[in-house]
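Appendix B.2, paired examples.
Example (i):
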Amino acid sequence: MLKDRGLDPGLQSAAGSARSSRSLSVAVNDNNKIWNDDYRQAEKRTAPDLSFGPLKAIVPENSLSSTSTLAVSSDTLSLLTSTESLVSTNVARDLPSMQSFSNSSSSISSAQREHSSPLARFEPQLSHSRTRIVEAAKEDNVATVCNLRPQVDEKPTNNALIAVSRTPKELPVHIEQVKMLLRQGASFECTDSACLRTPLIWAIVAGGKDLVELFLEEQALVETRDGVWDWTPVIWAVMEEKLAILNVLIRKGANLRAADSISGRTPLLWAASIGNHHAAELLLKRNKELINVTDKEGMTPLALAYFEGHLETARLFVDSGDNPSFKFESGSSLLAWAILAKNEDFARLLLEHGADAQSTDMDGVPALILAIKQNLPDIAELLVNKGADVQCTDENDVPALTVAVKDKRSDIADMLIRNEAELEARDGEGNTALLWAVWRNSERLVKMLVKGKANTAAVDGEGVTVQKWAAWTGNEEIVQLVSSRG
């Protein structure tokens, strides 16, 4: 076979010898002579779903004129003959194994054959390089033929390798086809023109575990990346949810910390993003330190799981040591985000795993205040039980109890009173919780505060008493409540 810039050993002596001046008149027919008898007999003996389409691509049918008579020297003829015989040589070598699969596949339906045999449908394309090699042969330019020959050989076999690798229904015959193509010189590093994915990546996408194992055994690069997303094979296995293939890649020593260049996300971070719980478990079992790696935005696996709504995967992360008190660059805690979104399950998960109950949002508003405003009584009580300050205030210096009263959150107000919230704490305008309860005309809240021994003689910022405000409401029950201790 041709080397990068020369003939193989069998042809070097012929090419290096004195060129013969004699010319040979050779009639070359693109549909007959280019395919030698051995090749045609081999193809006839092979089942339709095992056709040698890729081998046809190695020496394209239309690469030489079917009617022209070429005058070429003997060494050029030897080179062209070697190109032709390349097919028969390799077919003869590969035929036994291929034939055995042909026999074993005789019961497969025609529809199954068509689906399972991408090579049978693979049509070689006439490339510019092939045209040039024909012209070089016509001109008796051995050097150019030698330079172009590898290009002619490589592209169709690479394309055929991609075609087999991306076939979704993997059959044993595909392994033999791939082995044959690799012997023909197909490259593991070739990519398709649209998605820029290598055969290894396509095999992962298609779920071809056996092909993946074969590629890795044949020394395919386990860290190869596609040319669009810059994902490693491990990331592709995670994104395509191919757990068995992920296991194979891990066993082969794939770098589990390798991140794409766009988002800076590792396989575990991508597993968090799509909620691939089983992949996340497998990755963490292999390396528990992966939990500490963040992406370009500083996002942790836990934070990504939250934003995509993957609660159980998030539970795995906090159980594995991810920080439940995570804060974004804005200063807001993950807990604050969960409360603002009324995601009680996630907020409870964080608090139960030690999230800071005193954490705030980006404006410095405590989580307890946020829970009150979002009317989440269970979360508010859990926050208090986990250490939240019942005397905290919002961004306008309004105490937590007053916030609850203003919003008529009776259950939360009752919980705060039971946890010794200051009844006489005033907001920025000098008003107490009782004054706000009267203004809200809420008998229940007034009764609750009076029972808690709130000062019924308190005045507002302008000196108006609680009793006077009660009288202005016209609510006799409230008047009686605040007068009983006046």
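Example (ii):
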Amino acid sequence: MFRHPFKGFFIVLRLALLVACLGAVSRADDDKHPIDLWLKKALDRAASTADTRHALQTAEAKWDQEMNRAYKTLMRRLDRTQRAMLLRSQKAWLAFRDAEIQTSDAIVGSKQGTMWLPVIDEKHVDLVKARALQLADYDRLLDE
């Protein structure tokens, strides 16, 4: 069986490009959030796939904490009917999140190579981050 002499090089090159892309995933306006700033620094320091994954998984946990904080803050500001609606919405979102994570894990996880593992982690971060920002936006709307 013939083996291409540059195969290893191309794998390393693709991994380097993936890490570079992960550093640029946030939109410019999102880069101002402290979690995004922390993630950018952590990804800049990442020397391996394991380091990249750890940074992304930590960012997901931080966004989850932010989402829970925003949810609790919002619940304190809503009337009874609105609280019931938000509770129902959050339960449905959690079910969606779990199903979406299973789907993205199955689709991206079917790809060969460890370089795809950070892609899975990034999808998890994006999902939780979007909900955290959505809840914070609802809270801001109450001030207008």
